[in-house]
Amino acid sequence: MRTGILGGTFNPVHNGHVKLAEAYISALHLDRLLIIPANIPPHKSDSGLVGASHRLAMCRLTFADDPLCEVSDIELKREGKSRTVDTLEQLVLLYPRDRFFLIMGSDMFCSFTSWYYWQRILQLAVLCAGARKASSTDDEMEEQRRKLEALGACCELVEFEPLPISSTLVREKIFKGESLDGLVAPTVAEYIREHGLYR
Ligand code: ATP
């Protein structure tokens, strides 16, 4: 099986994540995509982070109707910081016949060699990142791909135009009492209202 891995804080999950998931499933011909909310993200501060059970529930609502997307609580069950290398080691044991495609943002791809145990990660997964056509990051990413492949990595750059949405924007809208239409799934907007999140 070709299994994609999309990790993140998902605080909360939004339509930018959905478009990203759809683009990678199609471009990489994935058989399934694991959406993996982080317990304690290694690259971000945890201030303003709502509880793991809420972030997991919102991911499940968002991807409920997509049979290729599976929301996994693998990182939420592990204590401490969520390290990608630990997640991959666990997934390899769980699904020994799968090929793993690790999806990351362009910034993460360009700083990949600062990740914890990055050498092991590139033995376990294909590194995948989105590049905007004819942008300066495109050249930077091609350069990084060459460097990483010389170090033994397999890389896939996918042409992708992201939606201008972030979890930060969603949290700001909620704080100001503005509508979330078009930003998150209606079921997630309802969940946020019901539980009084991000106020
Ligand atoms: P925040 O605003 O809190 O920093 P975020 O919107 O970046 O959060 P994350 O959960 O950190 O959300 O993102 C998970 C993954 O999704 C990351 O790889 C990130 O680069 C990617 N991502 C986030 N928003 C978008 C978007 N609009 N389009 C494409 N990819 C996105």
What's the story with the biggest beta sheet?
6 strands, parallel
Q: CATH architecture, please? A: 3-Layer(aba) Sandwich
Helix content: 40-55%
**Any idea what the shape is?**
globular
Distance between the termini: 41 Å
**What radius of gyration results from the CA coordinates?**
17 Å
Could you explain the architecture of this structure?
It is a single chain. The chain is built from eight helices and six strands, in the order βαβαβαβααβαβαα. α2 packs antiparallel against α8 (186-195). α2 (52-62) links the parallel β2 and β3 (69-71). The termini are far apart. It has one domain: Rossmann fold (3-Layer(aba) Sandwich), CATH 3.40.50.620. 41% of the residues lie in helices and 17% in strands. It has helices at residues 15-27, 52-62, 84-94, 106-110, 118-124, 136-150, 167-175, 186-195; strands at 2-8, 32-37, 69-71, 99-104, 125-131, 155-159. A six-stranded parallel beta sheet has the order 3-2-1-4-5-6, with helices on both faces. By secondary structure, the protein is an alpha/beta fold.
Keywords:
single chain, 199 residues, alpha/beta, Rossmann fold, 8 helices, binds adenosine-5'-triphosphate
Concise account of the structure shown:
This protein is α/β, with parallel strands linked by helices and 199 residues long. The protein has helices at 15-27, 52-62, 84-94, 106-110, 118-124, 136-150, 167-175, 186-195; strands at 2-8, 32-37, 69-71, 99-104, 125-131, 155-159. 41% of the residues lie in helices and 17% in strands.
